[in-house]
Amino acid sequence: MTATAVPPVVDTADRDGGDDTTAEPPRTGRSVPAALAAWHDPYARRGWVGTLVVAALAVLTRFWALGFPPGSNVVPKNGMNFDEVYYTVEAQEMLRFGYEDNRGYMFIVHPPLGKLLIALSEGAWDGSRSEYLTNSVGWRIAPAVFGCIGVVLMTRIVRRMMRSNVFGVLGGLLMVMEGMSLVLARTAILDIFLQTFIIGGFGALVVDRDKMRARLGALIADGADLSAGAPSLGPRPWRLLGGVLLGLACAVKWTGAYFFIALLVLTLLWDRAALRSAGVRKPLRSWSYRSVLPGVGSLIAAPVGVYLLTYLGWFTGENGWNRHWADSHKTSARLDLWGVRVPFDWGWVPGPLRSLGWNTLDAYRFHEGLDSGHAYGSKPWSWLVMGRPVDFYYDGSSTSCGASSCSREVLLIGTPIMWWAFVPMLLWLGWHWFTTRDWRAGTVWMAFIAGWLVWFLDLKRTMFLFYMAPLVPFLIIGLVLAIGAVLGPAVDTRAGGAEHALRRRRWGIAAVSVFLALVVADFAWMWPIFTGGLQTYSEWHAHMWLPSWV
User: 20 to 30 Å CA-CA from 326: which of 146, 251, 360, 538?
Assistant: First the structure.
């Protein structure tokens, strides 16, 4: 299949998780299983041109009028988007002191990396170390940059997964037009960083999957008999990069750990499937020695190491929040594990790490006990249909719209037509995985578990729609897979009996074109709601399709 060909209706991945692609010519006359064939894009330059076009659209949409609303903390919450009132202040503390002493809110509930990135953005743009923040562009640059990076990553990842530049560009364009990701990329809160690090870590593991299979395929092409077991597969820098990026995701928000665990399981399962495809008779043993044990460094030690590294300013500072907690507290404690009080002595742990451990436990208890009501709170069963989006900013005081009543709102909501396609897509994808064992369908469902189902474990806590942000890129991947199935396979008009297939193909193109046209129109219609555009009150109200959106 060429790089721009459309995947067939029945997915190209075999039951072992491989891809239907042509291997390099065997060097010994021995054929390489399709699941282990190396992929070489004959139109790589076209892929990069498409990526640059998508990146330009991402920059345009993420940076357009980025300074609105023109926030400031001189007057609390003046013009700030939702929780910018917290994170920008905490970021400014890091910019001034190198750590959070939390003078503003007297509690720290998230790791430091996201706030550090906002701080670097503020410092690079404004250069001021004052406690007062007056430049909203400065604190929103880092989220906008990460939003653009996420779009580029999506384009390249979908291209690789689909073996198609066309579908890669389509995946990137859908990400550009996805409303929640757009609003988060224009707001100085943590979730866009979390989303980007997770999709980056996933992309690195997908590349590692391809590289590892290509190595096995090369061994078979050279005549190696792998039935007794696989030899060492050499260094795996892409797996290491994936581990590092997932560790950084956890250093933004601890909810990144759900995706970290899910993707760790996935990459190990991919390796086992590859060994089975290579003809290893006892893949479990080779898998343990060649994948699991080497993975301890790249998938456990490296993520933990980079996570702790993000606390460097807190470790080296003297006045960070609870930095010296261990100096005045005993080293023995009783942990409540599933209702059982277990004695635990951690005196052997260095004091700074004990202080960090206490802070982590204290913040965890805060999140577990956070069940106060919120006007824009929602539960996960309503998220897929966007039952309760979040009002990030609203101003009804303007009179310059040409009507007696005007409105400006930044509403955290997905692009409705796109989002309402997610539920039927997931149902089809479950059937598709069950009947074909397509690894891509399994990946989307694994992410769905990590990004949606896990929230049902504690329904009493306060939740918001944007908790789904890390899951959205995976849902878009699933949507691209579904679009490929609707399109159907490319048709060779020279083949016999092509008339029916050609008719099927035309209907598929028509259906996909209508859907994509609706998504584009919907994105354009919702643009003022995503960006705080000035509208008359009646125009604003026309965008509120459901009563719960108001």
Answer: 251
For helices 165-176 and 472-487, what crossing angle results, to 10°?
Answer: 130
* Structure letter (DSSP) for residue 46: H
CB of 151 closer than 8 Å to CB of 172:
yes
Burial of 345: CB neighbours in 10 Å, binned 0-12, 13-18, 19+:
exposed
Tokens 């357009």, residue? 64
Residue 150: closest CA among 181, 108, 111: 181
In this predicted structure, what is the pLDDT of residue 110? 87
| Number of alpha carbons in the 13 Å side-chain half-sphere of residue 450 | 28
Phi/psi of residue 186, nearest 5 degrees: -110, 15
Helix axes 498-531, 472-487, angle to 10 degrees: 150
Please, are residues 182 and 230 in contact by the beta-carbon 8 Å criterion?
no
Cβ pair 6, 491 in contact under 8 A: no
Please give the Cα distance from 402 to 57 (Å, whole number). Answer: 31
Distance, CA of 461 to CA of 232 (rounded, Å): 47
Q: CA–CA separation, 267 vs 265, rounded Å? A: 6
CA distance 430 to 367: 32
Q: How many helices (DSSP H) and strands (DSSP E) are in the chain?
A: 20, 5
| Whether the Cβ atoms of residue 357 and residue 349 lie closer than 8 Å to each other | yes
Q: Cα(440)–Cα(10) distance, rounded to whole angstroms?
A: 13
CA distance 266 to 479: 20
Query: What would the DSSP string read from start to end of 207-256?
Result: HHHHHHHHHHHHHHHTT---TT--------HHHHHHHHHHHHHHTT-TTH
- On the CB side of 427, how many CA atoms lie within 13 Å of its CA? 5
Packing angle, helices 256-277 and 191-221, rounded to 10: 10
Instruction: Quickly tell me which residue has 């590859």 as its tokens.
Output: 274
Cis upstream peptide for 283 (omega within 30°): no
Q: Where are the beta strands (DSSP E) in 235-319?
A: none
Q: Which residue has the tokens 């006045």?
A: 319
Tokens of 3: 């790089």
Kindly give the parts of the chain with pLDDT less than 50: 1-6, 8-26, 28-29, 74-76
Nearest Cα residue to 137 out of 78, 188, 86, 194 = 188
CB neighbour burial string for 498-521, b if at least 16 within 10 angstroms, e if fewer: eeebeeebeebeeebeebbeebee
- Which residue, among 215, 262, 266, has the nearest Cα to 236 in the 3D structure? 215
**3-state SS track over 506-540:** HHHHHHHHHHHHHHHHHHHHHHHHHHCCCEEHHHH
Residues in the chain: 550
502-538 pLDDT, tens digit each: 888 889 999 999 999 999 999 999 999 999 999 999 9
- Give the separation between CA 446 and CA 205, rounded to whole angstroms: 14
Quick check: 418 and 522 in contact, CB under 8 A?
A: yes
Question: Residue 437: which residues within 8 A CB-CB, separation 6 or more?
Answer: 13, 14, 15, 16, 17
